[in-house]
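Sample entry (94 residues):
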Amino acid sequence: MASKKAVLKELADYFADKGKILSIAEYKAAEDRPIRYMLAKRPFGSWNRMTSMVKTNFPEQWAKTQAPAPAPTPAPKAAPKKVAPKVASAKKGK
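Predicted structure, serialized as tokens:
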């Protein structure tokens, strides 16, 4: 993978499969990463530069990484508490 374009393509495909651009820490921790972090960063100088080049050179893969996250489902609303009706007292005036 000596070519900058080949490294970029490999990373773009990987990120598209993941559905997002991973942070440096996430990428380093990933067990299924295609290439080591240093080899991924070295041709570009920085991780941010690499991500901007993915955006410029591989717009289809970039679009897959920028898909909106699914909206979190709202927590179910608590049912209103039922209040027992007040019972009139059995005692009447003395």
